[in-house]
UniProtKB/TrEMBL annotation:
InterPro entries: 7TM_chemorcpt (IPR013604). GO terms for cellular component: membrane. It is a multi-pass membrane protein. Pfam families: 7tm_7. This is Gustatory receptor. GO terms for molecular function: signaling receptor activity. It is found in: Membrane. GO terms for biological process: detection of stimulus. Keywords: Membrane, Receptor, Transmembrane, Transmembrane helix. The lineage of its organism: Eukaryota, Metazoa, Spiralia, Lophotrochozoa, Mollusca. It comes from the Eukaryota.
Length: 425
């Protein structure tokens, strides 16, 4: 038989309803947790994650699968580097190939993160989330997180399947085309074209499958990044709201001390979860800037110097929009999280220290020292933490580069005119 009881959370004054089973032991679950089941299932289907409880043979097969896909990605990256090294002048062809190289590096690095790094840290992140929400009340609606996860899952699966199918069809059509590069190589040798076309089609199909997996890995990274940032921001906003309530209320100093200690511990525990998640997210942010900045510079150079034709210009514009959209979203969201983490400092400064005990003052000093210490948030390979100043740094770098390219283009035009001038005697 079930009966309802009212439970007052330890750090809030709100009443929540919990269904409790009336049994001899009075056992019941504390609070619902976040479900990462959809993310885990998607990662298992694409081969990005495998349970540690499985046998050794499964782990060996998974390792061989990851190595095979990584070799296919490495072949694509090496091919683009080899083709680009054949260009000796800064032409439109070289600019386009350099953009392809940085794009392939971006995809390859994300693939390596998903298939070789996430197995080490993903389970730890899930356990840290579960421990946190077992100890504290969840401050957001679980349905919103679930909808966000399933939206990413559906979009990622559909686009990945479409991309893989399109890549396979293009490879088969290219192999059967009379003007195909592979046929131009085989035909002068006198070898049987069918004998070499079938392995080429199979290898191209595997390459298309790897492209679909790469597309899926990009969505998994975005899904994990978005869910983590959403949970972090909601929790830190909840802590700040409870701190504002403490500042505005006129309660017993002992009650204020207990609630402040609870908020400080909750903030510290959430910071530990952020640090654990940063073991994965720092690689996602690193590759965003490491590939995004050179790609943007290549696109700006090609467009400003006017060395691109219409098709290359359209491709460059697409690359510019996609990679800059990712950089803007990553930078703005991570900077927003950083501001949420340090926002409780404003509430601490508004607290009247004359109405609290000496122990509370010491507690506030420790809390303020933590908030004014090293910046907390999403880092970039432990080099720096993304905050509002990062927006100015990235924007200033790109604007400076564009100005320099425009200046060199103008100087080149003036020099060209002066060297071709003639005098009539």
């Amino acid at each position: 038989m079930l009966r309802k009881i009212d439970v007052r959370p330890r750090d809030t004054g709100e009443i929540i309803s919990v269904t409790k089973a009336s049994s001899s032991k009075e056992n019941f679950s504390s609070r619902p947790k976040i479900s990462f089941a959809a993310i885990t299932c998607l990662m298992k289907c694409s081969g990005m994650y495998i349970n540690e409880e499985l046998c050794c043979c499964s782990h060996y097969l998974h390792a061989m699968y990851c190595i095979a896909l990584s070799l296919l990605n490495w072949m694509d990256l090496s091919r683009m580097v080899y083709v680009a090294t054949g260009e000796t002048t800064m032409s439109a062809t070289l600019v386009t190939k350099l953009t392809f190289i940085w794009y392939q590096f971006w995809v390859y690095y994300l693939f390596m993160i998903e298939h070789f790094l996430i197995r080490k840290h993903y389970r730890k992140v899930i356990l840290s989330f579960q421990r946190y929400f077992e100890a504290y009340e969840r401050s957001f609606k679980r349905k919103r997180v679930t909808r966000l996860i399933y939206a990413y899952v559906c979009t990622g699966v559909l686009l990945s399947l479409l991309f893989a199918a399109l890549q396979m069809v293009l490879c088969v059509v290219d192999a059967l085309n009379e003007s195909s590069p592979i046929l131009k190589i085989i035909r002068p040798t006198g070898l049987n074209i069918k004998t070499y076309s079938i392995p080429y089609i199979l290898l191209s199909s595997l390459n298309g499958f790897s492209k679909g997996v790469n597309c899926l890995s990009i969505f998994v990274n975005w899904m994990f990044f978005s869910v983590c940032i959403y949970c972090f921001c909601k929790e830190y906003q909840f802590i700040y709201d409870r701190l504002k309530d403490i500042v505005e209320m006129d309660a017993d100093p002992k009650v204020v001390e207990e609630r402040l200690e609870m908020l400080r511990k909750r903030h510290e525990e959430m910071t530990k979860v952020v640090s654990q998640s940063n073991a994965i997210l720092k690689h996602f942010t690193f590759v965003t800037y490491a590939a995004g900045m050179p790609m943007t510079c290549s696109v700006l150079y090609g467009m400003i110097t006017g060395q691109l034709d219409l098709s290359d210009t359209i491709f460059m514009l697409m690359c510019l929009v996609i990679i800059n959209l990712q950089m803007i979203l990553v930078t703005s969201v991570a900077a927003y999280l950083n501001s949420k983490v340090h926002k409780p400092l404003d509430g601490i400064f508004q607290l009247d220290l004359g109405k609290v005990t000496d122990k509370t003052v010491q507690l506030l000093t420790v809390f303020a020292a933590r908030l004014t210490g090293p910046s907390i948030g999403i880092g970039v390979w432990d080099l720096f933490v993304i905050d509002k100043s990062t927006i100015m740094m990235i924007g200033g770098t790109l604007i400076t580069y564009a100005v320099v390219v425009i200046q060199f283009k103008t100087d080149g035009q003036v020099s060209h005119i002066s060297n071709n001038s003639s005098f009539i005697s």
